[in-house]
Design brief:
The protein has 10 helices and no strands.
Length: about 170
């Protein structure tokens, strides 16, 4: 079975996020505010990524000049990641880097690229991206995560000495 068939089969095993959202809204408490972003966040929390992706794409299309487009793109990238569409996750992060080079989310976008590469098994490329995060954004929180990402990649590549050096480097910097 292909990816789409697997997703469809999985949908039959749990209630859809849309049904759960409607149940929450019809309950005795107003748990979720009306609005596109609230709906998207709920869909992500329920791990129903396809409708969440659709919602974020609509937000980006509706508000292409928004000052928060970098934020929306990063959330879209994470939704693609959750849906196991790794290339689209990487593409969304690269779009952030290209369109918003001064964004405060650049370290996180770079880290997300490295993490996605690692997850899909491309450890050699992930190490390069993680190193870029550490080198370009050494004071960021993502630099610490990237350091651990490099160490994990080295372990996967059975480069134990490099993994140990990466762990030591994290300790030395922090």
């Amino acid at each position: 079975a292909g990816f789409e068939e697997t997703l469809e089969a999985g949908q039959d095993q749990r209630p859809s996020a849309r049904n759960l959202f409607d149940e929450l809204r019809s309950g005795p408490f107003d748990l979720v505010n009306d609005g596109e972003l609230d709906r998207f966040v709920l869909l992500l929390k329920l791990e129903d990524y396809r409708p969440a992706i659709e919602q974020y794409r609509k937000i980006l299309e509706k508000y292409p000049e928004s000052q928060e487009c970098d934020f929306f793109l990063l959330r879209l990238a994470k939704a693609y990641y959750g849906a196991l569409d790794f290339q689209k996750s990487i593409d969304a992060c690269r779009e952030i880097v290209k369109r918003y080079p001064k964004s405060e989310l650049i370290p996180e976008a770079h880290y997300q690229i490295g993490n996605t590469l690692f997850t899909r098994g491309d450890c050699d490329e992930a190490v390069k991206v993680f190193k870029e995060v550490v080198d370009r954004h050494p004071r960021s929180r993502q630099a610490v995560f990237a350091g651990f990402g490099m160490a994990n990649c080295f372990e996967e590549l059975e480069r134990r000495g490099d993994a140990l050096a990466a762990y030591r480097s994290i300790l030395d910097r922090h």
